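In this section we walk through a basic example: taking a raw amino acid sequence and producing a predicted 3D structure, encoded as discrete structure tokens. The instruction is simple. Fold the sequence below.
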Amino acid sequence: MLLVLLLSGLAVSGLAQKSQSLVTDLQAVVETERAFARTATEKGVRDSFLAFIAEDGILYRPGPIKGKEWLAARPARPGLLTWQPTYADISAAGDMGITTGPWEFRPKGPEDEPVGYGQFATVWRKQPDGTWKFAIDIGIEHQKPGDAPIAWTLPPNFNRSKTEAKVDVAAAQAALLAVEQRFSKASEKKGLAYALADYAALDIRWLRNGSLPTVGLKEATAFQALKTGARPVIFQPVRAEVANSGDMGFTYGGYEMKGEGKGQETELGSYMRIWKKQANGRWKIVLDILNEHPKPAAS
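The resulting token sequence is shown next.
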């Protein structure tokens, strides 16, 4: 009996250590995001992005591009971009993290009043040396928010244990891409608001240009139904990427929203979508961000 109790105690201790390790990894993601923002204040936006982007990292200008090449080919521009994470999460393997929160832009520097506001969404990937670099970064613009944002803190009761098990990542990415394609077909057939009911998590974060962030499935569905009704939205995914634990991933690409009726033009844009696998094994959308591309100037 003493041996059984001892072994049980060791097992519980080991689980606690793994859980603590995942907490540590999540905190490291948030601290990296904060360091990213501090570097932008100290050295400028371009140099900050070059320091924190992964070699194959993606930016949106306005569609998805190879960010490091794009940044290196362009000079630094004036202006101060500030931001902070207000929400973060991490995969069970501790190798993929997500952050989102508000940003502000001042054209000349810290002495200026902000002239632009918005929300960012970033996916972070742990590097072989243990540091974090971002794999993809996208943002929206919206009006000045009414209240000061709440600073990020560790989610309550965050006691998830870190897993050492690894999935077949290639197979998991193919499976997520198939889910993405089914979601697109549902959106094309009956509209984006309809598709959400079957594919979105209850706590989904919904980010759209011109609007403050929406949190919650009911709120996101109502927002989208009011904005676009049953207009078909077709997504063209470029890539899906999944964490080693197979429980978190993201997809990105372009979209087309068909115009309906006289004077309603087709809308083209880009998107990024973060998915998490639920307890029942199904992939659900936990963050969805969509950006309309500027319309070409009339000739």
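Looking at the output, two observations stand out. The domain at 16-142 is CATH 3.10.450.50 (Nuclear Transport Factor 2; Chain: A,). The two ends are 85 Å apart (CA to CA). In the next section we compare this with other chains.
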